[in-house]
Amino acid sequence: MQFTIDTAVGSYDDALRTVRAAYGRTEEPVRSGLRHVLPDGAVWQASGRYAPPAWTEEMLREWVDLLNGLSCLDLVWRVCSEPGPPGVRGQVLAEYINPHLTGHPALPELSLVSRRLNAASRQVGGGRAPWVIDEKTRVRTVHPVVAAIVIDQLQKKPLWPKLRHHTDPPPDGSRGHEPGKQ
Fold first, then answer.
1. What pLDDT, in 10s, does the model give residues 23-65?
2. Do 22 and 47 sit in the same domain of this protein?
3. Which of the four, 32, 48, 149, 152, has the lowest number of CB atoms within 10 Å?
4. In a domain, 130, yes or no
């Protein structure tokens, strides 16, 4: 038996159908697990069984508009300025939004800001802030599409010129994702 699959034209599913047909199996197999398909208009949704609702561009922009206070905006900018894995550690974020806490337990301060961000998220129907938080390692990771929309909207806010990154950017290599760093 021999068959040819043109990967420039056909899709992965086309290739699977061809192979199944070659062996006389035309029925589609039952796939285990959930398939992650975004609803219409959505730009991002966390994966997982208990994931919050999907985020649209309009929701992201409205979320940023609801945020007030430099600490919230600084934290959002800090997470979104480095999108994608490995993410930014909670302690790094806490020290970034409140430099006087450097070297001190700053996570309670970060919790207050996170609660404000999540409250604004619930107002727009997002459930919680539009990034993934790994609770074990306390790392926040944002999708690049979300980061681009959020930073674009941040630049329209009157507080944009006062954000910390204009006068005190994070040092190079400060992502804080190194093992053992708290």
1. 777 666 554 444 455 667 888 887 777 777 889 999 999 999 9
2. no
3. 32
4. yes
